[in-house]
Specification:
- Among the domains are: 137 residues, no CATH class; 70 residues, no CATH class.
- Helices cover 39% and strands 16% of the residues.
- The protein has eleven helices and ten strands.
């Protein structure tokens, strides 16, 4: 997330918010579907049977609903679902709360990259609108599926084509294909199955400029297959800002400005048991608290639906 926040911080400063300084753990947080340091997601690490994976998902994602309990409290403007497996687990339990037109492909051709482009180009969101214990609850969160954060190579700016399309491209533009495959700045991968990928592992701006200059005829076809996940994510946040779904609250007095928080009370940092040294800069404890057990009822009702 750091490159995304750095880029979006620069965007906010260009919009006149000179004190913007977005941080992991403050302006963006991690919601965990599984509430422990889970082992590798394969039968060989889980007793030798695939049912073990399904048991973990059933317990953590659905029955205990760890991520959903965090989500209804934080009410984020956007939720990045990290990896295709995360999306699969999430939609298995909460597909009835997801609104997407057109629907996300059940079998995405290029895995999380297909889902990344789809969820950024089309409005896909988690919606909850209900009464729980006599109180209204509303949530509307944009959903974006990204490649998995655990592997840096997933986030290289890169060209991606299915093998048949790449073979056709190589026949049509052999010099451009040779550049992708052999230039030392490129990381070329042609797996036995799946998409061909040519990642820009260094000097990305210079490489793109060189492609534009040397392979002008091939550039349009190449750029149609281009992904820059970090840039796509930060541009998406800028798009939400332009729509008013993300806003910035100006600082007052000695307080610096901040990315505006969602509505809803929170007393974690300032309550009758303790007060962190800086308290809550967002005045959350002043908001009307939910009735005891309210958010648990919201989650339980969502699961029942």
């Amino acid at each position: 997330m750091l490159p995304v926040l750095e880029s979006f911080t620069a965007f906010l400063r260009a919009k006149g918010h000179a004190d913007a300084a977005l941080r992991v753990g403050e302006d963006v947080g991690q919601l965990d579907m599984v509430a422990c340091a889970s082992p590798h997601w394969g039968p060989q690490w889980l007793g030798g049977v695939s049912q073990s994976v399904n048991t973990i998902i059933a317990n953590c994602v659905h029955r205990n609903a760890w991520a959903m309990k965090q989500l209804v409290q934080t009410r984020p403007a956007v939720l990045f679902l990290v990896g295709q497996a995360s999306w699969s687990m999430f939609q298995h339990s909460f597909a009835h709360l997801v609104q997407a037109d057109p629907p996300l492909p059940a079998v995405p051709e290029d895995g999380p990259y297909t889902l990344l482009r789809h969820t950024m180009q089309h409005d896909c969101r988690l919606r909850i609108s209900m009464k729980a214990g006599g109180e209204d609850y509303e949530l509307s969160t944009r959903l974006v599926v990204t490649p998995h954060f655990s592997y840096d190579v997933n986030f290289l700016p890169q060209f991606r084509m299915d093998p048949e399309a790449y073979a056709g491209f190589a026949r049509k533009f052999p010099d451009a294909a040779a550049f992708l495959e052999h230039d030392p700045r490129m990381q070329f991968q042609k797996p036995a199955s799946g998409y061909v990928a040519a990642g820009l592992r260094q000097d990305a701006a210079a490489v793109l400029a060189e492609i534009k200059r040397k392979f002008a005829a091939a550039e349009a076809e190449l750029m149609a297959s281009f992904y820059d996940p970090h840039r796509m994510m930060s541009d998406f946040l800028a798009e939400l800002y332009a729509k008013g779904e993300l806003t910035y609250t100006k600082g007052a007095g000695s307080k610096r400005g901040f990315l505006s928080r969602a509505q809803g009370p929170c007393a974690f940092c300032d309550n009758r048991h303790w007060r962190f040294p800086q308290g809550c800069p967002y005045d959350k404890p002043k908001e009307k608290p939910y009735p005891p057990g309210f958010l648990e009822k919201v989650v339980a009702t969502s699961l029942k639906a």
